[in-house]
Amino acid sequence: MSTGTVTSGCPSPSLGKNIAMGYVEAAHSRAGTTLTPADMAAGRHRGLPVPGGRACAAGGAVMADSAEEGLYSRQLYVLGAGARRVSGAAVLVSGLRGTGAQVATALVLAGTGRVVLHDRGEASVADRAQQFLLRESDIGQNRAEASRRALAELNPRVAVVAYTGELSEAFLTSFQQSPFTAQAHVVVLTESPLEEQIRIGNFCHAQGIYFIVADAKGLAGQLFCDFGEHFIVNDPAEGEPVCAAVKHISKGNPGIVTCVGMEGSRGHLFSDGDLVTFSGVEGMTELNDQEPVPVRVMGEPPGNPGYAFRLKIGDTRSFSPYCCRGLVSQVRLPQVHSYVSAPLAPWCCHILPCLSRSLHAAFRALHAFREEQGRLPRPRALADAERVLELAWSLAMQPGALDEDVVRAFASVSAGDLCPVAAVVGAVAAQEALKAITGKFLPLDQWLYFDALECLTVEGVTQLTEEDCVPRGSRYDGQIAVFGAAFQELLGRQKYLVGAGAIGCELLKNFAMMGLAAGPEGDLTVTDMDTVALSNLHRQLLYRSADIAKPKSVVAAAAVRRMNPDVRVTARQDQVGPATEMLYGDDFFRHLDGVASALDTLEARAYLESCCSRSLTPLLDAGTEGPRGNVLAMVPHLTKLLAPAAAPEDVTFPLCTLRYFPHTIQHTLQWARDEFEGLFQLPAEHVNRFMVDPAFPEQLPTGKAVEVLEQVRRILQERPRDWQDCVRWACRHWQSCYHDAIIQLLHTFPPEHVSTVPGVPFWTWDKTCPHPLVFDPDNDTHLEYIMAAAHLFAQSHKIPPCSDRASVQTVLRTVVLPPFVPQEGFQMHLAEEQEEVPADGERLEELTRDLEQQRQELIRGEEAQVPLMEPIHFEKDNDIHIDFITAASNLRAESYSIPAASRLMSKRITGRIVPAIITTTAAVAGLACLELYKLVWGCRDLSCYRNSNFSLSDLLAATLHSHLQYCGREWSCWDRLEMRAVSADGEEMTVQNILDWMTHGLTVTVLLHGFTVLYDSGENEGIRALMRKQR
Questions:
Q1: What is the distance between the alpha carbons of residues 629 and 627, in angstroms, rounded to a whole number?
Q2: Which residues contact 589 (CB under 8 A, 6 or more apart)?
Q3: Ubiquitin-activating enzyme SCCH domain: from which residue to which, for each copy (predicted)?
């Protein structure tokens, strides 16, 4: 089991909407102002603070080198260009208990340039219910100092500093003016008194420091953000702006633009009102470099082949006629947002929805209670809860606006410390800090309240008394304060299965803090077949650089033991699937109390669900994609089975499109990927196999055997002697792909060629007329291709490569490329059915004789190595591999006038990388563990469970499970009607027997066995009669 992905759409409601029955309520007090193109041109954005509080100077501290790109690549896909500001930011995190530890950890993993940890308190045993950075040896030491040691180890690229003094204005000024040249300064307060929040908040507002309050108490959390009076959101939406290739533009009012999507898929992502710009348009050049213009989406054009769409633009009647090419790109204009200071001030209470107003007043009353009593309310102490309610009423701005039950419930467990709640609140706070730094996504404006108070309505929790929840001097006292001591023992007896990917790491961290499987009968099985990779380190908490290439499950299990030595954890390296059913069969799953899943393929997810369904084992399924996440609880006999998610289309392209007629960057990237395999993997495999078993082609069809042996002969003839030979080979191959092949194509189908339909040009619609490239050793892209191709060619032939670009250019200038003469009557395969190689028995015999002779000579030669070549399998995190793919694709794109793709985009598309960030992962794991509490309690109330879909770019949300009604009763997927399939005399039942048995009170319309239809009442009588006779 490994990293999860979202397997169903999860659109989040807009900010400010009161979400009934949900986890979160938030409010937007002021709408942002969009800067128009005229504003930008007039310089009205100047003087406004860009994210980071000051202008970002060119060449500032950014994530730029290849090592950092490899480490943070998944995060770069989430945060976009703004991610490069993260390493130039400084964040102060005050309060290093659970929430503060989560905030600091997420920011350190994300690569924040400088993180200052502030806490004046000493670590206690009770802190270890949620503070996962502390070791047992840290008890009695300053929390900031102890946390600094753990965080510095987590990411050596981040400067982690501890401060144990007072949060004075002098210190905050020094933080802002430190020698570290930060592009953004953020202060995050946790575990902070109200008076301190207001004092520091006002100072930060005046000084241009971004300010966040994050607090978690029991089963509720609170966030407040103040990013100043003029905060610019550079990009409020997820993903990159949409773009498309232009195929035609009409002259008219309005002008109609016919486009082909750049994602290589059907449809598009443009919406009415989007602003777009045009570039690279030939003919109607007036559109190029214009100010952004709005578009309206039209239907598909007549004769649309399935991927084209049309957009209406303005009046084009006065423009020149469209000729060819061009790119239309969505423009996202910056927005300016204004914030007020003085967090938790009573004047803004009226903007909050009802539940949030109650929590808002409850948090303020809690501050007042603590100031009055010098402590938090005792768990389950009715008198304390009533006093908090009295204070809430006295502080409320609007009579009748409070839900007294909410305030009482909140107060009764406010002394509790729960790791899952701290994980959610801390993750959201860290994401808000990243929004302040990067200008990516809309920040909260300005409040967010989170609660899981439905946990208190679970049967068993409602019966807890003050005595059940008194502190025991245990590390779990914060959890006992909410759920009682008996529940803690129950947690210790749990038996769970979990993976060790990104979500798995966060789950394991939470499990260790919660004490899951920490009792004598507990058992936590961690299984993962993967090893730790560099790209895991920025979002998978349990791994360090020293763990790279080690088994994830082994490293994760060791980390859990360090966090909580009592957890009984076992590491396995097996994939859960049909091949391992001897290990993970029905008996294994029936032995479990639950499974926490975060699988990254739909097939694996469906298989695990089927195992849990058969064995009636609860399943928590979680996934992430960028800022989006989801958590689904599958409870036997209560909830639905997990909905089968629509599998993402595995996009394939016709070979003729890839070879001759690419029109999107996806086509050129797939072509480059195929080139990689055809040049550096398959030939080496064929040569090695031939050297061991020269008769292996006899197992292939004659045509395929000839093709393979031709390839083997060519490879043996091209065997390089040294690095210079590899460079010359790369140059010749460049010429063959980007010059000669294009010349041949244009000779066969000249630009003026007419298709089989009279009068219709051949080069139109999905066929873009290419142009040959001329090799230039001083061209960066040409040289990058040569460097990568020569390196891979040398590696496959076991020759040491060289990275000296100057020496490579010297060799290239000596290469003489012969003029290419196109062939007459050259046959191009334009249809799939023409691809089969014709059988040629004589040619096969000739090749076999010649190659056997070469094989014997190589075997006798002293320089022969076994195996002769090294097959190279594509790895998305290998820089040389991505260098080749990027250069090869962009050169082909240049030839076909397709906009080039950046290295990061090429890597994402080719490697099919799912964007990921630690904040989403931590939030998902926190939500999953809140559902786990209910499972451990044995909750049978469906209304208590939450099916969570959220987006940290917008707002958290939650929905509930439901049952179906039929024949006057409720049914779920867990209901079963059991009958004997074999009668007493040993005769198997017929379908008619089953129908007779079932029709007592039920009407059978369709009877299925899996996907097989046994009976369908909609068929005619003859077919139904045959169906009824089946056994």
A1: 7
A2: 497, 595, 611, 612, 614, 615, 617
A3: 662-907
Rounded to whole angstroms, the Cα distance separating 33 from 612 reads 50
**Residue 697 Cα distances to 276, 415, 690, 715, angstroms:** 55, 74, 8, 16
Please give the Cα distance from 641 to 654 (Å, whole number).
Answer: 37
Give residue 559's Cα distance to chain centre. Answer: 24
Q: At what angle do helices 143-154 and 98-109 cross, to 10 degrees?
A: 30
Do residues 714 and 850 lie in contact, with contact meaning Cβ atoms separated by under 8 Å?
A: no
Map residue 655 onto helix, strand or coil.
helix
Residue 65: count of CB within 10 angstroms of its CB: 9
Nearest Cα residue to 434 out of 72, 718, 967: 72
CA dist 576 and 33 (Å) reads: 51
| Strands 495-498, 594-597: pairing kind | parallel
Place of tokens 């004997």: 980
- CA–CA dist 423, 105 (Å, integer): 10
Q: What share of the chain is helix, strand, coil (3-state, %, to 5)?
A: 40, 15, 45
What DSSP element (H or E) covers 620? strand 619-625
In the chain (1031 residues long), the average pLDDT of successive 10-residue segments reads 32 28 40 56 44 34 54 87 89 97 97 95 94 94 96 93 95 85 88 94 94 97 94 87 86 91 58 89 91 86 64 94 87 90 52 76 95 96 96 77 91 97 97 95 89 93 94 95 96 96 96 96 95 89 93 97 96 92 93 92 87 94 92 90 58 84 91 96 90 80 80 88 96 96 93 78 81 96 97 95 95 93 78 53 77 78 73 93 97 92 91 92 97 95 89 66 58 64 78 77 72 70 77 72
* Three-class SS state of 226: strand
Measured CA to CA, the distance from residue 545 to residue 547 in angstroms comes to 5
Q: Are 438 and 83 in contact (CB under 8 A)?
A: yes
Residue 877 structure tokens: 């995190």
Question: What does R_g of the chain's alpha carbons equal in angstroms?
Answer: 33
State the DSSP string of 719-744: --SSHHHHHHHHHHHHHIIIIIHHHH
Which helix H or strand E contains 679, and what residues bound it?
Answer: helix 665-680
d(CA 523, CA 494): 7
Q: Identify the CA nearest to 39 among candidates 29, 47, 31, 51.
A: 47
Distances (CA, A) of 341 to 156, 228, 715: 35, 8, 70
Q: Return the closest-CA partner of residue 419 out of 563, 224, 625, 621.
A: 563
Instruction: Give every CB contact of residue 489 below 8 A, 6+ residues apart in sequence.
Output: 519
Q: Which residues pair with 231 in a beta bridge?
A: 337
Q: How many CB atoms lie within 10 A of CB 743?
A: 16
Coil, helix or strand for 86?
Answer: helix
647 close to 602: Cβ distance less than 8 angstroms: yes
Rounded Cα distance between 101 and 108, Å, is 10
* Distinct helix (H) and strand (E) counts, the chain: 30, 30
Which whole-number Å values give the CA distances from 687 to 684, 870, 946, in the listed order? 5, 10, 57
* Torsion 674-676-678-681 (CA) sign: negative
CA dihedral angle for residue 141, residue 145, residue 146, residue 152, rounded to 10 degrees: -170
Q: Are 257 and 249 in contact (CB under 8 A)?
A: yes
CA distance 6 to 924: 11
Q: Which of 354, 419, 611, 656 is catalytic?
A: 656
Contact predicate 131/522, CB 8 Å: no
Pairing of strands 114-118, 159-163: parallel
Collapsing DSSP to helix, strand or coil, 212 comes out as strand
354 tagged catalytic:
no
Instruction: Yes or no: say if 656 and 831 are a contact pair by the CB < 8 Å rule.
Output: yes
- Amino acid (one-letter) located at 150: A
